Amino acid sequence: MEWLVASVISVMTGCGVYLTLRARTFPVVLGLTLLAYAVNVFLFSMGRLQIGIPAVIDPAAAAYTDPLPQALVLTAIVIAFGMTAFLIVLALKARSELGNDHVDGLHRSDDELKATKHNSTKAETERSES
């Protein structure tokens, strides 16, 4: 069972990193969400969850489980949800202001035109000099 959980965590982390490094905003949001899920599963697995044992110390109970991983994951879920909502609103605002969804916020078509003009003038000056 541990290898399955470790495999799931590694796949989610790998996909999250891959999507975070994309140039578009929607894959970045999905990548950060996957990374948050991977961290949550990792915290659960490190907390050694036990089923059927109370999380609060009870004198009648024979044993208890540590409530700290559950509290950490609940806090992480709330923070990840807030972060995702903020990123979506920021991406939508950038899309409406800039007209594209590139994470660097540049107008690719204008930049590509400038680069093409720059390269063509540079090539012409090199031809005229030689």
TrEMBL record:
Localization per record: Cell membrane
Protein name: Na(+) H(+) antiporter subunit C
Family matches, as PANTHER family: ANTIPORTER SUBUNIT MNHC2-RELATED
Family note: Belongs to the CPA3 antiporters (TC 2.A.63) subunit C family.
Membrane topology category: Multi-pass membrane protein
Transmembrane segments: 6-21, 28-51, 71-92
NCBIfam families: PRK09094.1
